[in-house]
Design goal:
- It is a single chain.
- By secondary structure, this protein is of the alpha+beta class.
- The chain folds into two domains: about 100 residues, no CATH class; about 190 residues, 2-Layer Sandwich (Heat Shock Protein 90).
- The protein has ten helices and seven strands.
- Strands 2-4-5-7-6 form a five-stranded mixed beta sheet, covered by helices on one side.
- A hairpin with a 4-residue loop joins β4 and β5.
- α1 crosses α2 and α5 packs antiparallel against α6.
Protein backbone atom coordinates (compact mmCIF):
# COMPACT_ATOMS: atom_id res chain seq x y z
CA UNK A 1 0.00 0.00 0.00
CA UNK A 2 2.82 2.41 0.87
CA UNK A 3 4.39 1.88 -2.54
CA UNK A 4 1.43 1.37 -4.83
CA UNK A 5 -1.07 3.92 -3.50
CA UNK A 6 1.11 7.09 -3.72
CA UNK A 7 2.28 6.10 -7.19
CA UNK A 8 -1.27 5.33 -8.32
CA UNK A 9 -2.59 8.55 -6.80
CA UNK A 10 0.09 10.58 -8.56
CA UNK A 11 -0.73 8.98 -11.94
CA UNK A 12 -4.46 9.31 -11.26
CA UNK A 13 -4.17 13.07 -10.67
CA UNK A 14 -2.02 13.60 -13.75
CA UNK A 15 -4.51 11.78 -15.96
CA UNK A 16 -7.69 13.30 -14.54
CA UNK A 17 -6.53 16.79 -13.48
CA UNK A 18 -3.55 17.64 -15.69
CA UNK A 19 -4.04 21.42 -15.47
CA UNK A 20 -5.33 21.91 -11.94
CA UNK A 21 -2.87 19.45 -10.39
CA UNK A 22 0.20 21.49 -11.31
CA UNK A 23 -1.45 24.94 -11.19
CA UNK A 24 0.07 25.77 -7.80
CA UNK A 25 1.55 24.15 -4.70
CA UNK A 26 -1.73 24.31 -2.76
CA UNK A 27 -3.66 22.29 -5.38
CA UNK A 28 -0.77 19.82 -5.73
CA UNK A 29 -0.70 19.09 -1.99
CA UNK A 30 -4.49 18.95 -1.55
CA UNK A 31 -5.06 16.69 -4.58
CA UNK A 32 -2.19 14.38 -3.55
CA UNK A 33 -3.29 14.04 0.10
CA UNK A 34 -6.95 13.49 -0.77
CA UNK A 35 -6.23 10.90 -3.45
CA UNK A 36 -3.78 8.99 -1.21
CA UNK A 37 -6.26 9.08 1.68
CA UNK A 38 -9.10 7.84 -0.50
CA UNK A 39 -7.12 5.05 -2.18
CA UNK A 40 -5.63 3.90 1.13
CA UNK A 41 -9.14 3.44 2.55
CA UNK A 42 -10.19 1.67 -0.64
CA UNK A 43 -7.03 -0.52 -0.49
CA UNK A 44 -7.65 -1.43 3.15
CA UNK A 45 -11.32 -2.28 2.59
CA UNK A 46 -10.68 -4.42 -0.48
CA UNK A 47 -7.63 -6.05 1.15
CA UNK A 48 -9.56 -6.71 4.35
CA UNK A 49 -12.34 -8.44 2.45
CA UNK A 50 -9.80 -10.54 0.58
CA UNK A 51 -8.06 -11.53 3.85
CA UNK A 52 -11.35 -12.51 5.48
CA UNK A 53 -12.26 -14.80 2.57
CA UNK A 54 -8.70 -16.16 2.41
CA UNK A 55 -8.77 -17.07 6.11
CA UNK A 56 -12.21 -18.59 5.81
CA UNK A 57 -11.32 -20.63 2.72
CA UNK A 58 -7.50 -21.11 2.76
CA UNK A 59 -7.21 -23.97 0.29
CA UNK A 60 -6.73 -23.49 -3.44
CA UNK A 61 -9.74 -25.68 -4.14
CA UNK A 62 -11.80 -23.18 -2.16
CA UNK A 63 -11.16 -20.44 -4.72
CA UNK A 64 -14.79 -20.47 -5.98
CA UNK A 65 -15.93 -19.98 -2.39
CA UNK A 66 -13.56 -17.07 -1.81
CA UNK A 67 -15.04 -15.28 -4.82
CA UNK A 68 -18.69 -14.18 -4.40
CA UNK A 69 -19.48 -15.07 -8.01
CA UNK A 70 -19.64 -18.83 -8.59
CA UNK A 71 -16.81 -20.72 -10.26
CA UNK A 72 -15.25 -17.57 -11.65
CA UNK A 73 -12.38 -18.05 -14.08
CA UNK A 74 -10.31 -15.02 -14.94
CA UNK A 75 -10.43 -14.15 -18.61
CA UNK A 76 -8.35 -11.18 -19.67
CA UNK A 77 -10.39 -10.47 -22.80
CA UNK A 78 -13.71 -10.56 -20.95
CA UNK A 79 -12.24 -8.44 -18.15
CA UNK A 80 -11.08 -5.77 -20.60
CA UNK A 81 -14.45 -5.72 -22.36
CA UNK A 82 -16.26 -5.42 -19.02
CA UNK A 83 -13.93 -2.59 -17.98
CA UNK A 84 -14.50 -0.83 -21.30
CA UNK A 85 -18.28 -1.36 -21.05
CA UNK A 86 -18.35 0.12 -17.54
CA UNK A 87 -16.48 3.17 -18.85
CA UNK A 88 -19.03 3.60 -21.65
CA UNK A 89 -21.90 3.22 -19.19
CA UNK A 90 -20.36 5.78 -16.82
CA UNK A 91 -19.88 8.28 -19.65
CA UNK A 92 -23.47 7.68 -20.79
CA UNK A 93 -24.81 8.22 -17.27
CA UNK A 94 -22.79 11.40 -16.87
CA UNK A 95 -24.13 12.82 -20.14
CA UNK A 96 -27.64 11.63 -19.25
CA UNK A 97 -27.57 13.36 -15.86
CA UNK A 98 -26.09 16.50 -17.41
CA UNK A 99 -28.76 16.42 -20.11
CA UNK A 100 -31.52 16.06 -17.53
CA UNK A 101 -30.11 18.98 -15.55
CA UNK A 102 -29.85 21.17 -18.64
CA UNK A 103 -33.39 20.21 -19.65
CA UNK A 104 -34.71 21.17 -16.22
CA UNK A 105 -32.82 24.47 -16.39
CA UNK A 106 -34.29 25.09 -19.84
CA UNK A 107 -37.81 24.42 -18.54
CA UNK A 108 -37.28 26.82 -15.65
CA UNK A 109 -35.93 29.48 -18.03
CA UNK A 110 -38.93 28.98 -20.29
CA UNK A 111 -41.28 29.43 -17.35
CA UNK A 112 -39.47 32.61 -16.28
CA UNK A 113 -39.54 33.88 -19.86
CA UNK A 114 -43.27 33.21 -20.12
CA UNK A 115 -43.88 34.99 -16.82
CA UNK A 116 -41.76 37.94 -17.92
CA UNK A 117 -43.52 38.11 -21.27
CA UNK A 118 -46.93 37.98 -19.57
CA UNK A 119 -45.91 40.73 -17.13
CA UNK A 120 -44.50 42.82 -19.96
CA UNK A 121 -47.68 42.52 -22.03
CA UNK A 122 -49.79 43.28 -18.98
CA UNK A 123 -47.67 46.33 -18.16
CA UNK A 124 -48.08 47.58 -21.74
CA UNK A 125 -51.83 47.09 -21.47
CA UNK A 126 -51.97 48.79 -18.07
CA UNK A 127 -49.85 51.70 -19.28
CA UNK A 128 -52.04 52.14 -22.34
CA UNK A 129 -55.21 51.96 -20.25
CA UNK A 130 -53.73 54.34 -17.70
CA UNK A 131 -52.72 56.96 -20.22
CA UNK A 132 -55.45 56.72 -22.81
CA UNK A 133 -58.24 56.22 -20.30
CA UNK A 134 -61.16 58.65 -20.55
CA UNK A 135 -60.21 60.41 -17.29
CA UNK A 136 -56.72 61.37 -18.43
CA UNK A 137 -57.87 62.29 -21.94
CA UNK A 138 -60.84 64.24 -20.65
CA UNK A 139 -58.72 66.20 -18.17
CA UNK A 140 -56.13 66.99 -20.84
CA UNK A 141 -58.74 68.14 -23.36
CA UNK A 142 -60.59 70.10 -20.69
CA UNK A 143 -57.37 71.89 -19.74
CA UNK A 144 -56.63 72.54 -23.40
CA UNK A 145 -60.13 73.94 -23.94
CA UNK A 146 -59.72 76.36 -21.05
CA UNK A 147 -56.32 77.50 -22.33
CA UNK A 148 -57.67 78.17 -25.83
CA UNK A 149 -60.14 80.64 -24.37
CA UNK A 150 -57.58 82.26 -22.04
CA UNK A 151 -54.18 82.08 -23.73
CA UNK A 152 -53.68 80.75 -27.24
CA UNK A 153 -49.90 80.61 -26.93
CA UNK A 154 -50.09 78.49 -23.80
CA UNK A 155 -52.75 76.35 -25.46
CA UNK A 156 -50.43 75.77 -28.44
CA UNK A 157 -47.55 74.85 -26.12
CA UNK A 158 -49.82 72.50 -24.15
CA UNK A 159 -51.00 70.81 -27.34
CA UNK A 160 -47.41 70.40 -28.50
CA UNK A 161 -46.38 68.72 -25.23
CA UNK A 162 -49.52 66.60 -25.23
CA UNK A 163 -48.68 65.30 -28.71
CA UNK A 164 -45.16 64.43 -27.49
CA UNK A 165 -46.61 62.46 -24.59
CA UNK A 166 -48.93 60.37 -26.77
CA UNK A 167 -46.27 59.96 -29.46
CA UNK A 168 -43.90 58.53 -26.85
CA UNK A 169 -46.56 56.11 -25.64
CA UNK A 170 -47.20 54.82 -29.12
CA UNK A 171 -43.49 54.62 -30.02
CA UNK A 172 -42.52 52.70 -26.88
CA UNK A 173 -45.46 50.33 -27.05
CA UNK A 174 -43.24 47.64 -28.60
CA UNK A 175 -40.01 48.54 -26.77
CA UNK A 176 -39.01 46.78 -23.56
CA UNK A 177 -36.29 49.24 -22.54
CA UNK A 178 -35.37 52.85 -23.27
CA UNK A 179 -32.49 55.02 -22.11
CA UNK A 180 -33.00 57.07 -18.99
CA UNK A 181 -32.38 60.23 -21.02
CA UNK A 182 -35.27 59.30 -23.35
CA UNK A 183 -37.56 58.61 -20.40
CA UNK A 184 -36.66 61.93 -18.76
CA UNK A 185 -37.47 63.86 -21.95
CA UNK A 186 -40.88 62.23 -21.87
CA UNK A 187 -41.24 63.21 -18.21
CA UNK A 188 -40.60 66.84 -19.14
CA UNK A 189 -43.58 66.80 -21.51
CA UNK A 190 -45.69 64.87 -19.01
CA UNK A 191 -44.73 67.36 -16.30
CA UNK A 192 -45.84 70.23 -18.53
CA UNK A 193 -49.34 68.73 -18.75
CA UNK A 194 -49.52 68.19 -15.01
CA UNK A 195 -48.11 71.62 -14.17
CA UNK A 196 -50.65 73.28 -16.43
CA UNK A 197 -53.42 71.42 -14.66
CA UNK A 198 -52.20 71.55 -11.05
CA UNK A 199 -49.95 74.62 -11.11
CA UNK A 200 -47.65 75.00 -8.11
CA UNK A 201 -49.54 72.24 -6.27
CA UNK A 202 -47.31 69.68 -8.00
CA UNK A 203 -43.57 70.28 -8.00
CA UNK A 204 -41.24 67.90 -9.80
CA UNK A 205 -37.46 68.14 -9.49
CA UNK A 206 -35.04 66.03 -11.57
CA UNK A 207 -31.36 65.64 -10.68
CA UNK A 208 -29.66 62.87 -12.68
CA UNK A 209 -25.91 62.55 -13.20
CA UNK A 210 -24.69 62.64 -16.79
CA UNK A 211 -23.01 59.21 -16.55
CA UNK A 212 -26.37 57.63 -15.72
CA UNK A 213 -28.31 59.20 -18.61
CA UNK A 214 -27.24 56.44 -21.00
CA UNK A 215 -28.42 53.60 -18.74
CA UNK A 216 -31.68 51.82 -19.46
CA UNK A 217 -35.09 51.67 -17.83
CA UNK A 218 -38.47 50.19 -18.70
CA UNK A 219 -40.57 52.73 -20.65
CA UNK A 220 -43.27 54.65 -18.75
CA UNK A 221 -41.72 53.59 -15.42
CA UNK A 222 -41.53 57.17 -14.16
CA UNK A 223 -45.00 57.97 -15.45
CA UNK A 224 -46.47 55.08 -13.43
CA UNK A 225 -44.71 56.24 -10.26
CA UNK A 226 -45.57 59.93 -10.73
CA UNK A 227 -49.22 59.17 -11.45
CA UNK A 228 -49.37 56.90 -8.43
CA UNK A 229 -48.00 59.72 -6.26
CA UNK A 230 -50.39 62.47 -7.31
CA UNK A 231 -53.49 60.22 -7.37
CA UNK A 232 -52.83 58.84 -3.88
CA UNK A 233 -51.95 62.13 -2.18
CA UNK A 234 -53.58 65.47 -1.53
CA UNK A 235 -52.06 68.33 -3.51
CA UNK A 236 -52.90 72.02 -3.35
CA UNK A 237 -51.09 75.34 -3.28
CA UNK A 238 -51.20 75.23 0.50
CA UNK A 239 -50.02 71.61 0.58
CA UNK A 240 -47.94 71.01 -2.56
CA UNK A 241 -46.78 67.54 -3.55
CA UNK A 242 -43.01 67.37 -4.02
CA UNK A 243 -41.60 64.66 -6.28
CA UNK A 244 -37.83 64.27 -6.62
CA UNK A 245 -36.06 62.10 -9.21
CA UNK A 246 -32.34 61.56 -8.72
CA UNK A 247 -29.69 58.96 -9.55
CA UNK A 248 -27.53 57.33 -6.90
CA UNK A 249 -23.88 56.30 -6.99
CA UNK A 250 -24.77 52.58 -7.03
CA UNK A 251 -26.65 52.88 -10.34
CA UNK A 252 -30.22 53.22 -9.06
CA UNK A 253 -32.88 55.83 -9.72
CA UNK A 254 -34.51 57.17 -6.56
CA UNK A 255 -38.00 58.69 -6.73
CA UNK A 256 -39.23 60.36 -3.55
CA UNK A 257 -42.46 62.14 -2.68
CA UNK A 258 -43.90 63.56 0.51
CA UNK A 259 -46.82 61.60 1.95
CA UNK A 260 -50.17 63.34 2.47
CA UNK A 261 -52.65 60.59 1.63
CA UNK A 262 -56.19 61.29 0.55
CA UNK A 263 -58.90 60.17 2.92
CA UNK A 264 -61.13 59.16 0.03
CA UNK A 265 -59.20 57.61 -2.83
CA UNK A 266 -60.25 57.42 -6.46
CA UNK A 267 -62.30 54.50 -7.65
CA UNK A 268 -59.51 53.47 -10.01
CA UNK A 269 -56.94 51.09 -8.51
CA UNK A 270 -53.90 53.30 -8.95
CA UNK A 271 -51.69 50.85 -7.05
CA UNK A 272 -52.16 48.20 -9.78
CA UNK A 273 -49.76 49.93 -12.15
CA UNK A 274 -47.05 50.19 -9.48
CA UNK A 275 -47.56 46.59 -8.37
CA UNK A 276 -47.22 45.37 -11.95
CA UNK A 277 -44.05 47.43 -12.38
CA UNK A 278 -42.55 45.86 -9.25
CA UNK A 279 -43.42 42.34 -10.47
CA UNK A 280 -41.91 43.00 -13.89
CA UNK A 281 -38.55 44.07 -12.48
CA UNK A 282 -38.63 41.19 -9.96
CA UNK A 283 -38.99 38.66 -12.79
CA UNK A 284 -35.88 40.15 -14.40
CA UNK A 285 -33.97 39.59 -11.15
CA UNK A 286 -33.74 43.33 -10.42
CA UNK A 287 -36.17 44.14 -7.61
CA UNK A 288 -37.79 47.54 -7.21
CA UNK A 289 -37.65 48.68 -3.59
CA UNK A 290 -40.61 50.64 -2.23
CA UNK A 291 -39.85 52.18 1.17
CA UNK A 292 -43.01 53.23 3.02
CA UNK A 293 -41.48 52.94 6.49
CA UNK A 294 -41.07 56.69 6.91
CA UNK A 295 -44.21 58.56 7.88
CA UNK A 296 -43.55 61.64 5.74
CA UNK A 297 -41.59 60.44 2.67
CA UNK A 298 -41.92 57.47 0.34
CA UNK A 299 -38.85 56.34 -1.60
CA UNK A 300 -38.88 54.06 -4.64
CA UNK A 301 -35.58 52.66 -5.93
CA UNK A 302 -35.43 51.60 -9.60
CA UNK A 303 -32.36 49.66 -10.86
CA UNK A 304 -30.78 51.15 -13.97
CA UNK A 305 -29.57 48.63 -16.55
CA UNK A 306 -26.39 48.60 -18.57
CA UNK A 307 -26.24 47.84 -22.29
CA UNK A 308 -25.04 44.26 -21.73
CA UNK A 309 -27.82 43.59 -19.21
CA UNK A 310 -30.44 44.81 -21.69
CA UNK A 311 -28.95 42.59 -24.41
CA UNK A 312 -29.03 39.61 -22.04
Amino acid sequence: MAIVVPLFGFVFNIVNFPVQYFSDLFHFIVFTVLSIFYFCIYFIICGGIAVVFKNAFPLEKDLPKRLPWFNYTYNEKIFLWNYFSLGIINIFLIFLMEGIRRYNDWKENMKETEKLDAAYRQSRLNALKSQVNPHFLFNSLNTLSGLIQEDEERAEAFLNEMSKVYRYMLRTDEEQFVTLDTELKFVQSYQHLLSTRYGDALRLHVQVQDEHAGLYIAPLTLQVIIENAFTQNVLSKARPLFITIQSSANGHLLIQNNIQLKQVKDVLDTEAGLDNLVKKYALMGMPVKVDDTQSEIRTISIPLLKQEEVAA
